[in-house]
Amino acid sequence: MVNSINHALVIVKTEVDYLLGWHKWRNDWETFGGRIEEGEGLRECIDRECREELGISGVKFEYLGIVHYKMPPDYWVKEWHEEYGGLYGILLSKENFDIIEKKRIDRDEIGEIAFYSDIKRRGEKIDEINEKLLEFY
């Protein structure tokens, strides 16, 4: 099987915190992003995902690199597999939280957004992969 880049992720950072989304289907707090759709490149994918999940567009992204990990079976691939994804970062002010909450489109998948510090304060679990991804930005 040939491995290729199949998704793009974005780490959303404010002055002193990170913003995460509650993924309803996986029951987990995650960074934002998703699968590359037919005909999309990395940049188009992350632009679309940010419009859908964060309600923002025209944001200046910082390209952080390619992430590689071994993934357990999931909805897309029924066996253990390797995945590669483009990783980006964006820096927003905390005031953007209210704008994001009003304008985000995809509420079926991302049920809630919250700041990392609030999630930790509430004692909620953040998957190890997402904890590690935050270290890159």
Give me the count of strands. Answer: 7
Tertiary shape? globular
User: What share of residues are in beta strands?
Assistant: 35-45%
Q: Which structural category do the helix and sheet elements fall into? A: alpha+beta
Helix and strand pattern? EEEEHEEHEHH
CA-based gyration radius: 14 Å
Our count of helices gives 4
**Average pLDDT taken over every residue:** 91
Characterize the biggest β-sheet: 7 strands, mixed
**Helix share of residues?**
10-25%
Distance between the termini: 31 Å
pLDDT < 50 stretches:
none
Could you characterize what this model shows?
The protein is an alpha+beta fold and 137 residues long. The chain contains four helices and seven strands; from the N terminus they run E-E-E-E-H-E-E-H-E-H-H. Strands 1, 2, 3, 4, 5, 6 and 7 form a seven-stranded mixed sheet that branches. The chain is globular, with a radius of gyration of 14 Å.
Blueprint (SSEs and pairs):
Elements: E1 5-13, E2 18-23, E3 28-30, E4 32-35, H1 42-54, E5 62-71, E6 81-91, H2 96-103, E7 110-115, H3 116-121, H4 128-134
Parallel strand pairs: 1-6
Antiparallel strand pairs: 1-2, 1-4, 2-3, 2-7, 5-6
TL;DR of this structure?
With 137 residues, this protein is of the alpha+beta class. The protein is built from 4 helices and 7 strands; from the N terminus they run ββββαββαβαα. Strands 1, 2, 3, 4, 5, 6 and 7 form a 7-stranded mixed sheet that branches.
What brief labels describe this structure?
25% helix; alpha+beta; globular; seven-stranded mixed beta sheet; 7 strands; 137 residues
